[in-house]
Amino acid sequence: MKPRSRWRLQAGLALGLAAGFAVMPAGAQQYPSQDIRVVCAFPAGSGADVLVRYFAEKLRPIAKRTVIVENKIGAQGNIATEYVAKAKPDGHTIYVHAGTAVAANQSLFRKPPVDVAKALRIAATINRQPFMLVVDAKSPYRTVAELTAAMKLKGDKVTYGTAAPNGRILAELYKIKAGFQAVEVLYKSGGESLNELASGRLDFAALDPVLSLAQQRAGRIRILAVSTGERIQASPELPTMTEAGVPMDLTGWWAAIVPTGTPKPVIDTIHKWFVDIVSTDETKTFLNNNGGDPFINTPEKAQEMFETAIKEWSDYIRMAKIEPMG
Asked: Average pLDDT of the chain?
């Protein structure tokens, strides 16, 4: 090749590479360029907070940045959802929350603050998990059948506690399919229901697996069944609601979520971070101890799942005859 031709080829390659970098947003080239804020929708010390803080801690050495957990509490997660949706789409705000709960809130509220299908993107999935039907440890009920029989005898004086969308749907489907009346008591976090269970004000509750398993290990509650269609690998000894004669398949999954408009290279980076964390034996043990099984998907597949979940959980809410909140 002649020297002049070689020079032209090298110059052309250099221009091509420069053009490729030029189309990439400046923030994506330098990501992360500042502190990362990981948003939790429930209070410090809640089951959700335990999971969020675990991943925030694991992100610090990978991202090589300060990672700050922000608890944005209220409206069953809608406060946090709106906060993230309106954050700058640069990857420095990551919502670690149940994608299924975010999807369910689109139908649990008459006027949800944002259209999550348009406002949010799933960067990575984390785990699959059930919600759990529980009673106080001193309760005489050791099976769903025993609890159901007692609730039918109690008439219209049955009360139960919930805090998150998945739990609300589990409890409503249970009472409808089992055929008894009950009044829901809605709490800001599942932990707030524990004293009410212990005092007898609540007959049962539908709680997240992190809180449920921790409290069962502490001897405060008894788990009667899980909401998933099949037994979970994390706690194979726990029967399903279907096995207990109350058919349902409510499987929640957690995700790392970012605002729409976040550059794809940034989403890909966040995706890799979470895949690396979820793939470790340590994280598998952590998730199993807290009632979940590791769950990894591509961002594209996860987004499809999210959009499907919005429709599926709308159907669950309709079947449960839950009246949307204002």
From this structure: 91
Q: What ranges in the chain are assigned the alpha helix state H?
A: 3-23, 26-30, 47-63, 78-85, 99-108, 116-119, 144-154, 165-178, 194-199, 209-217, 264-278, 281-289, 299-319
CA distance linking residue 97 with residue 78, whole number of Å: 11
Average of per-residue pLDDT across 41-64: 95
Q: What is the mean pLDDT of residues 243-253?
A: 93
pLDDT recorded at residue 29: 66
| Nearby residues of 326 by Cβ (< 8 Å), 6 or more positions away | 109, 110, 111
What superfamily in CATH does domain 132-226 come from?
Periplasmic binding protein-like II (3.40.190.10)
Mean pLDDT of 103-116: 95
- Check pLDDT > 90 for residue 47: no
Domain coordinates of the chain in residue numbers? Answer: 31-128+251-319, 132-226
Query: Does the 31-128+251-319 domain belong in CATH 3.60.10.10?
Result: no
According to the model, what pLDDT value does residue 59 have? 98
Dihedrals φ, ψ of 98, to 5°?
Answer: -75, 115
Closest CA to 273 of 265, 135, 165, 74: 265
d(CA 67, CA 78): 22
